[in-house]
Amino acid sequence: MGAGSEELDVAVAVVTYNSERHVADLLDSLPAAMGELSYSVVVVDNGSADGTVALLDARTDCTVVRSVNDGYAAGINRAVRSSPPASTVLVLNPDATLDPEAGPRMFDVVRKPGVGIVAPRTREADGSLSPTLRRTPTLGRVGGLSFTGLAMFAERIEDPRAYESEHEVDWAIGSILLVDRECFDALGGLDESYFLYSEETDFCLRARDLGWATVYTPEAGGMHVGGGSGENATTHTMQMINRIRLYRRRAGDRRAWGYFALTLLVELRRGILGHRNSWTTLRALVRPSTRPPMLGASDALLPR
């Protein structure tokens, strides 16, 4: 890890929540991943109830910040504020790991003119490609019809050929993202109103609005286990509500009503097909008072 008063190359920002099973693997991967880059590591714990904090306190390779659980975006922002000055921010999920030299390879890309965010090639725990690249949300892509192979219906990019070369993308899953610090500051960090889910979508799209590109590179790699903090009816509901909120903020109320209606149909179909979490989500969509309170989206039928 870098030291001294000079600006570091990378400020690593991690947010944990009951991450005892995974976070040690992430931290252990960093020295080889960062190579000759100077870096700091700040882990913000959002109120874990397992052994995460004890595990972190026993280590000497990170600074631990204890926090209440006010959301993933707030945790990342807090980690960045608690970090020493650095030219980039490396946002990492606690259930991710980085391959050797991934840091310098992403760093080389983010230093190119106009690049604000870099996403590496990510694999699943079984070694298969993780399709982390996404297209801009639209009405046609509400249903997540990736199996059609048609861009107009699929937000998720699953074609393996799209992961073979470096190129600009609309946005990428936020499990591993290297962000130019000027870009991060220009956007005011992640939007904390999302609490959990859609914050990386919003961040990449807002960056593009300001002229900062999100670039995928296959030259850097990592692994993301996924679901490290668990998925349940509440988190699924948060995910769907935040998708509507993001679309509304970018497209306006009139088109957002269409997105809302299509989301209802999508969740109804999922529920009929056996996805029990979708019934909870449907209830929350039509009864705002039952929505997760941390979203602050319970005062109107169309989520704000």
From TrEMBL:
A Pfam family assignment: Glycos_transf_2
Coiled-coil regions listed: none
Record has Methyltransferase as a keyword: no
Keyword Transferase found: yes
Alphabetical UniProt keywords: Transferase
Name of the protein in its database record: GT2 family glycosyltransferase
Domain Glycosyltransferase 2-like: residue ranges: 12-135
A GO term for molecular function: transferase activity
Domain of life: Bacteria
